Amino acid sequence: MNILILGSGGREHSLAWAVNQNPKCDILYCAPGNAGISKVAQCVDLNIENSSDVLKFCLDESIQFVIIGPEAPLAMGIADDLRANNILTFGPSASAAKLESSKAFTKGVCDSCNAPTAKYARFTELESAIEYVHEQGAPIVVKADGLAGGKGVIVAMTLDEAINGLKDIFSGAFGKAGAEVVIEEFMEGEEASFFILSDGKNILPIGTAQDHKRVFDGDTGPNTGGMGAYSPAPIMTKDVTSKAISQIIQPTIDEMAKRGIPYQGVLYAGFMIKDGEPKLVEYNVRFGDPECQALMMRLGAQALDAMLACAKGELNNYKLNWADDHALTIVYAAKGYPGTYEKGSNILGLDTISESTNIQVFHAGTKEEENNIIATGGRVLNITARGSSLKEAHRLAYETIEKIQWENGFYRNDIGWRAL
Ligand code: AMP
Ligand code: GLY
Predict the structure, then answer these.
(1) In the chain, how many domains are there?
(2) Is 116 exposed, middle or buried (0-12, 13-18, 19+ CB in 10 A)?
(3) What are 304-343's pLDDT values in tens digits?
(4) Which of 1, 215, 347, 353 reaches 20 to 30 Å from 182, CA-CA?
(5) What spacing in Å lies between the alpha carbon of 331 and ligand 2's midpoint?
(6) Reported pTM
(7) 270 alpha carbon to ligand 2 midpoint, in Å?
(8) Residues 244, 286: one domain?
(9) Containing domain of residue 291, as a range?
(10) pLDDT tops 80 at residue 150
(11) Whose CA is closest to atom 3 on ligand 2?
């Protein structure tokens, strides 16, 4: 079948790499893609937030399956438009994507199905929000309701931070996304991510992971989109995983179906785990980036079969083959990220790396110019390795990243520290 992947990050490169290995895949396209993706797929210059452009391409090129990577096209309803035109699509409808695009919506779903999560209140006015923060005291967490590019959450250690955060949000720092605010109780514990596929009714767990959100070693510095990840996450023990499914995930999927907005696609749950009890921090309606890179390294070609079963509503008949393996990915980012950074520097040494099912360099912000790989983004490469232990994956990934010469880049030296 002809397949189209939407997106251009390390996440989409790892998806393309996995899908391309599956014999069911004939022609693989990716829009817009990047220099690394162009080695495994035909990159197409499409505006992936424009439904009619995407639809026209699918009809012209006889695309039989579309995999949507990022949240923005999902929140805009691209999956709805494709399905309305009988194109099999992996990804939730705009209404179901509210599990990511509205924090207040998700809190409401948790209330309806009694899923453990932080106590909260919703506000549309600054004064009442400030009053609530005074009543509750710090630490406290302030969140813009809508999509804010990962920047709309303020984990406030003091009342001043919380109030300044509220003032920012209500003065329009996040545009429409900040028209409403959710204020949450601060949860203590260790964070982990859990990825499941749902076809609207059935669920299929596809792996756990831990991200590294802070930019510098020792989890210091500002928050980023993620500087590295590994899978599985040891904190997600059998017991925690089974509680997460029975108390949070399955009730959410059931509640969505009950509301007439069944959830189809990958559901990425962020948990806070304390004393063996998981509580929901947030949902995302897409794969995590860079978590996806570690997951795809472990799943390989069967990722396509799983996504197809999901999109067709056939997850009840589908089983994954699990290897007892571990994967770890290190993000190579441009100096200055997540703040301002230069674009256009040259990356050397990539041709000295022999890629295999155990080592892959997934590209994010790159382009190719006259056989040179040029950095064009903040997060640029994802050096990903697989091994029979996390220690082995860690060793391989760091051994590989040292072969790359990129003066303008930096990476964390402690990816995996929590589990190692
Ligand atoms: P979110 O975008 O909702 O995942 O929030 C971003 C990050 O803020 C999370 O990964 C947590 O590290 C932190 N966070 C969010 N909500 C809470 C909470 N209620 N208590 C403690 N930390 C939180
Ligand atoms: N790595 C975090 C995310 O994709 O949201």
Answers:
(1) 4
(2) middle
(3) 999 999 999 999 999 999 889 999 999 999 999 999 999 9
(4) 215
(5) 12
(6) 0.97
(7) 9
(8) yes
(9) 190-317
(10) no
(11) 288
